Amino acid sequence: MSEQKLTSNPRGIPSSPFVERVEDYVSPEEPVEVVLKKFQEAISKYKFMEINLLQRRKVLEEKIPEIEKTIAVVDLLTEKKETQEPLYTDFELNDTLYAKAKIEASDSVYLWLGANVMLEYTCEEAKELLTSKLETAKTSRKNTLEDLEFLRSQITTMEVNTARVYNWDVKQRRILREQQQASGSMSVQQFGRALGILGAIFLAHSAYSTYEHLAYVKAVDEADTSVPIEIAIECLTSAFVALLGVVLSAETFRQIDMKYEIQKMTIDTIDTKPSFVTFNHRHIKTTPNK
């Protein structure tokens, strides 16, 4: 695989490279199957990080409104402290069960910092702490949204890379298959030419043998001018071999045969309507299905 300097976003999530030339990533040491497996592993890692960020975003979207409501309550308590007025509210005893409560003006509040952890703060300290936590939560939500967008972009890039490598592999396999077919076709053609030449040589030898035989018959003044069966068989065999070589080596013959097969396939594909066969005493009549 081609070595590339990979960058990352501010939170350290690595960016995915874009495959411009598949040849730079595929090699005998790393065939297509290995490259595709690595791409799938990278996509799985990106999706795993995406799931974690989605959960974090959900937590932050629930946490930020709670902090804002807590700040509003602290502001209300600060206002009541300045006017020395008590605060009347509904205190929750249980689910759907509330009781009226009177809260005297006070300079301190109690904040839950975690599970079973509560600390006392002054109103000013509580607001400062809550404001800091609110800013941190909003910044974290912003970074989470940016990371989610970045991850979606990287996942898309890796999916495109996977498609490019797969299509390249399909194309290379098709080219290799066509080359093998062309090589096989050329071998048949060369064999046909050699067979034709051999048949022509045998045919020439048979013709010469026939000529010698007829010359001998004429020289001895024999009345029988028929060709011996051995020479006739040799002539026919040589002619057949030569004709077979011409047929095998003829490019035009293969093209005509291919066109015939294509036309036959086209006709068979078009004429796919079933027919109903009716019997009428002395003949059979076929009626196309409309």
From TrEMBL:
Main subcellular location of this protein, as a coarse class: membrane
GO biological process, one term: microtubule-based process
A single Gene Ontology CC term: endomembrane system
Keywords: Chaperone, Membrane, Transmembrane, Transmembrane helix
Cellular localization per UniProt: Endomembrane system
Quaternary structure and partners: Heterohexamer of two PFD-alpha type and four PFD-beta type subunits.
Family: Belongs to the membrane magnesium transporter (TC 1.A.67) family. Belongs to the prefoldin subunit alpha family.
Protein's recorded name: Prefoldin subunit 3
